[in-house]
Fold this sequence. Notes:
This protein has helices spanning 6-16, 21-28, 32-39, 47-57, 61-65, 76-94. The protein has a single domain (6-94), classed as 434 Repressor (Amino-terminal Domain). By secondary structure, it is mainly α. It is globular, with a radius of gyration of 14 Å.
Amino acid sequence: MNENTTGNKLKALREYAEYTPERLAQFLKCSPQQVIQWENGELEPTLNQWMMLCKLYGITPDEMFSHINADNLVDKDVRDEFMHEASVNHILKRNQYL
């Protein structure tokens, strides 16, 4: 796999955002093995997962699939906002408010 593959970009974005495969899998409602398979080019995320990945990293789909360096893409403010929103929604759903 060369440096410009989507799998390598997914891994670089995940690592830059300081997520483990397990943590990312929790937010995407998949298994950590799937995350690793995406990064190895063995499997592709679903369309919904692609969109969630873009939102999580604060990037557009165009940026996700371009050859822009992953280090230049991650917007930590957007990521933190998404994580907060996801946590609040999880709590609300758990308590049956949503």
